[in-house]
Amino acid sequence: MDKKWYEKNGRDGDVVISTRIRLARNLEEYPFPARCGSELRKKIIEKAEDAVLNSNSVISSRFKSVDPDELDTEEKVSLVERHLVSPEFISEKGARKLLLLDDESVSIMLCEEDHIRLQVMCEGFELDRAYEQASRIDTLLDERLKFAFSDTLGYLTQCPTNLGTGMRASVMLHLPALHEAKAMRKIAENLSKLGLTIRGAYGEGSEPVADLYQLSNQITLGISEKTAIENLRNITKQLIAQELQSREAMSKRIEIQDKIYRAEGILKSARLIEGSEALKLLSRVRFGITAGLIKDVSLDTINRLIVEIQPATLMHNTGKQLAPNERDAVRATLIRNNLNA
Description:
The chain has helices at residues 38-53, 73-81, 87-91, 127-144, 176-180, 184-193, 225-250, 254-269, 275-290, 299-308, 311-318, 324-339, and strands spanning 16-25, 63-66, 97-101, 106-110, 116-123, 149-150, 154-155, 167-174, 196-200, 212-217. By secondary structure, the protein is α+β, with helices and mostly antiparallel strands.
C-alpha cells in the first residue's frame, strides 16, 4: 500500500504540507440532514454507499465503510487528528457513515452537515491533482445520484456559505518565520479582502499549532471552481515566497539557530514530552531542515510525527489507553526512535 499523505513530503513541501479539495453535495429528493430523521438518513447513506462501493470504477474496491458509532473514543478522535473527518461528524448523534480510501487520501462523510462531504488530500502543493481526483469521484456519484442543483444558486447546501460550487480548496502551510515575525495578523486581514481565509490547521475556530495554518477560499457563489483554485494558487505562491525570504534572513541569526538546535537536542533525548511542547519543537526542527541546518532528519519523518504524536492517534496506534504521563513517555520514545534512526 502507498504511504499516506501525511507520511511523505510533496511539491513545495518546505512550506506546503498538504492540499485539500472538499465538495459538499446533497441529494435532490431528500431534505438537508438537519431536517432528516434516522430512517431518511439511513436511506441517504444506503444510496450513497451503493454509488461508491458498487460502481464499475477501479477505485471502488479500495473504499471501506466505517460506522463512527462502532469506534472507540480514541479511534474517533484520531480520525479528526488525521484530518479525515470534522469534529462535528464524530460528536453528532444519528445515522452517519464514513467511506475511507485505503491510503486515506479520500474520505467521504455521509450525513454530516450535508448528505455528502467528499474530501481529497494530497501531500505538498497539488491543487490540480487533488481537484482532478475530487472531480472524478464527484462525476462517479453524479452518474448514480441526482444532486440538488439550481441554475441560479449552483449546488444547494445546508449552509448558505457553501452555495454555488460547494467547494472548499485549501492548503496547509508551515509558516514558522512569518509567525516568528508576527506577520500573520496583517496577512490574515489582507487575505480576507481577497476572498480567502487563513486559520489554524484544523479549520474554523482552531488555533495554529506547530506554526501550521490552513489557507482556503471563502467565496463559493458566483465564481467557478477553477477560478477559485487559481486564486488560491496565486496567493499560496506569494506566501511561499514571503516565508522562504523570511526564513533565509532568520536562519542566519544565532538566536534562531540556537532555538533550532536546542529543539533538536531535546527531541532526540527527552524521556517525557507533552504534546504541545513536542509540536512546537518539531516545528523548529522542520524549519532547521529546510534552512539546511539539520541534515540527518527528513521532512517525511517530521510530517508523519506531527500526526502520530497526537494523543488519540498515539493511543490508537499503541492499542491501549494511556494516562497523560504514559502518553508523554510513549511520545518521547517515538520521537527519539525516529530522529535518531
